[in-house]
UniProtKB/TrEMBL annotation:
Organism, scientific name: Paenibacillus selenitireducens
Entries under InterPro entries matching the protein: Aldolase_TIM, NrdG, Organic_radical-activating, Radical_activat_CS, rSAM, rSAM_sf
One Gene Ontology MF term: ribonucleoside-diphosphate reductase activity, thioredoxin disulfide as acceptor
PROSITE patterns, alphabetized: RADICAL_ACTIVATING
Function: Activation of anaerobic ribonucleoside-triphosphate reductase under anaerobic conditions by generation of an organic free radical, using S-adenosylmethionine and reduced flavodoxin as cosubstrates to produce 5'-deoxy-adenosine.
Pfam family, one: Fer4_12
Name the record gives this protein: Anaerobic ribonucleoside-triphosphate reductase-activating protein
Reaction(s) catalysed (UniProt annotation): glycyl-[protein] + reduced [flavodoxin] + S-adenosyl-L-methionine = glycin-2-yl radical-[protein] + semiquinone [flavodoxin] + 5'-deoxyadenosine + L-methionine + H(+)
Keyword check for S-adenosyl-L-methionine: yes
Species lineage: Bacteria, Bacillati, Bacillota, Bacilli, Bacillales
């Protein structure tokens, strides 16, 4: 997988101390993005699943956050990583420029599998006009903090609205 950076002991990327995995590659290209160098999938370093798990496990007191770039752009690899992280007993937060509705309605199997590993999702693209430094764990007011229960509720609402299973 292509990784921009792994940062330990963050207090701004979720509740508590967190190890943040910054994935390379992002299709959203949000104006005002704080990490535009992550847009290009060729940036960053190619790391194996074992290398990333070892780095995360080296800090036993932190939980984990997937950020980017866009973790869902590397959903297959990120899903496998999430499974290993959960085996370590760590919680996983994820940041995405997609809305949960987009992922549920249009996501690939790998993206949906990755979403299932998430305990807290910060969804939606960063919008410069909505930038707000006073709200915790988000960059703009349009972004939502969604728990696993929120995601399930939205999924059920979409299924009922569309009359199909998502």
């Amino acid at each position: 997988m292509r990784i921009m950076n792994i940062l330990h002991d963050s207090v701004v990327d979720g509740i508590g101390l967190r190890t943040v995995v910054f994935f390379a590659g992002c299709p959203h290209h949000c104006r005002g993005c704080h990490n535009p160098q992550s847009w290009n999938m060729e940036n960053g370093t190619e790391l194996s699943l074992a290398e990333v798990v070892e780095e995360i496990a080296s800090n036993p007191i932190t939980n984990v956050t997937f950020s980017g770039g866009e973790p869902f752009a590397q959903a297959e690899e990120a899903h496998l990583l999430a499974i290993q992280i959960r085996k370590l007993g760590k919680s996983i937060w994820m940041y995405t420029g997609y809305t949960v509705e987009q992922l549920l309605a249009e996501g690939t199997e790998a993206q949906l599998a990755l979403l299932e590993q998430c305990e807290m999702l910060v969804d939606g693209p960063f919008q410069l006009a909505e930038r707000d430094l006073t709200i915790p764990f988000r960059g703009s007011r349009n972004q939502r903090l969604l728990s696993r229960e929120d995601i399930l509720r939205i999924r059920v609402e979409l299924e009922e609205k569309q009359g199909i299973l998502v």
